[in-house]
Write a structure and sequence with these properties.
The structure is a homopentamer of 107-residue chains. With 107 residues, chain A is mainly β. Chain A has helices at 55-59, 97-100; strands at 2-9, 14-15, 24-28, 34-38, 48-53, 70-75. The two termini of chain A are 17 Å apart.
C-alpha cells in the first residue's frame, strides 16, 4: 500500500460498461507520479490517502467486481510530504519517516 | 490505473489462440514509456485513455477470459500532458495535476 | 503488455516439477532490460514479440496451470527499436511511436 | 519478497469497512522508499521485516479477505542496511549481500 | 520471470504461521537489487536462478498455499553477469544477451 495525495477528479464520459457508478480520482505521489484510483470513501482534494493495488483494490469497493486496480482505502490523519521539502531531510536513509506519519499508538 | 495516450495500432498476424478478436493499441505515457493494451472501447489515435492492469484488465473485456494484462477502460475528457511541457510546471511537487485533469464535479 | 525482443534460449536443466515441457526464452527490452518468458508460440531469435504478465501469462499457455509470470503471446509484424537509435527521436514526448509500430488498420 | 524497516504506525481514523482491525505500519526500504503494510505480527519500530505483496499478502493475514497488498510476514534476525552506508560497499555488483543477511544454515 | 543470483540465506525466527517449513534465500540482480525468494529447489549460494513472481510463485511450491510472491523455479546452466562487467558491453542496446544466456537448443 502507498500514501498518495488526491489532486483532482478524473472526468471520463465514455467508459466501459460496469464502471458507470465509480468515482475516479487523480492521485499524486510525493515524487510527483500521477495515477488514477477508484474512490469508495469520498475524499476531499488535498487529502493524503492510502491505496491498495491489484486484486485487493476490488475488495475495497462496495461491489468487488468493480473494474479497478487502485482503490482508496482510507484517509491518513496526518502526513507531512517529504517530497515537497527535500531540504528538510538532513539524514537521507535514516528512519525519519516516523515524524511524517504522525506516530501514535496503532488503532 | 494510469492515463496514457493512444499512438498506434499494433499489428500481430501470428498470435496465440484466444486473442484473435482483440484489438491491440500502442500506448505512450507522459514520460514516453511505450506499452500495449487491449482496446474494448475503440479509441481514436491521439486520445488520452485510462487503463487498468493485471486481472482487472480482463474484467474490462467483453470476454473476461481474454488474454490481457492492460486494457483501455475509458477516454479521458480532457488531459493536458505535463511531460511535453516541463517548463509549464513552475512548482514541482505541488498538487498542480488538478489543472491537467479537467477538474469538474465527479460523475 | 510490452513489446520485447527474443535474444536467446534459457537452458535450465534443473527446474521445479511442472515446468519440464516449457520453452524458456531470454527477452530484452528496448532499454536493454533482460527478462525470461515462456514461449508457447516458437519464436525465432531476433523477433520482436508482445508478452503478457501475471496471471494472464498462464492463460496464454496450452496448460493454464503452467508456472509462468511472463508469456509470449504473439510476434509483432513490424517494430522499429527506438532504444537503439535515440538520435532518431527528434521530439521527445511526442506521439512518434506510431511510425515504430507499423500502423495499419486494426486486425 | 522484500526486506524493509518499520519506521512508524500509520493512523487512519476514516477507512473502508473491513479494515477496522488491521494494524498499519509505515515501512522504508534501504533506498528510502516509503510504503504501508498490514502487520499481523506486531513488530517494534526499527526492526527489519520481510513482506509479501499482491494476493500473497492476504494469505498472511488471520483473515485472508483482509484488504491489503503488502503484509509483514516475519522479522529478520539480522540485517545490515547497505543503503545507510554506501561507502561500505567497495565492490558494487558483487554478491556482498551475504554478510548483510546474517548467513546461517537455513531454518 | 527474472534471472537472479543466490547470495545468502535469510534467517527469520519469528514469522507468520504457515511459513515454518519454507526456506528463504536472499537474491541479487545484476544491478545489485536485493530481494527474498522461497526456495523449493535447494540452490547453492552463488548460483544464478530464474524466479517467478505473484500468484505463479505459489504454484512453484510443493504446497500451493505457501505464502510467497517470489519463488525459485530452476537453476540456470550458464549465465554471464553483465552487471559486474559493464565495460564488456561495447554495444549498449544490441541483442548481446545471447552470449550471456548460454544459447543452446531449447530443452
Amino acid at each position: 500500500m502507498e500514501v498518495l495525495q488526491v489532486v483532482a477528479d478524473l472526468v471520463c464520459t465514455r467508459r466501459v460498461a460496469g464502471m458507470q457508478a465509480v468515482s475516479l480520482r487523480v492521485l499524486q505521489s510525493e515524487q510527483g507520479v500521477v495515477s488514477v484510483a477508484s474512490d469508495p470513501v469520498g475524499v476531499p482534494e488535498g487529502k493524503w490517502v492510502f491505496v491498495t493495488t491489484g486484486s485487493a483494490a476490488r475488495l475495497a469497493m462496495p461491489d468487488p467486481l468493480t473494474i479497478t486496480d487502485l482503490a482508496i482505502c482510507g484517509i491518513v490523519d496526518h502526513w507531512e510530504c517529504a517530497g515537497n521539502a527535500p531540504a528538510a531531510t538532513p539524514d537521507a536513509g535514516a528512519p525519519d519517516a516516523g515524524a511524517r506519519a504522525g506516530v501514535r499508538a496503532a488503532p
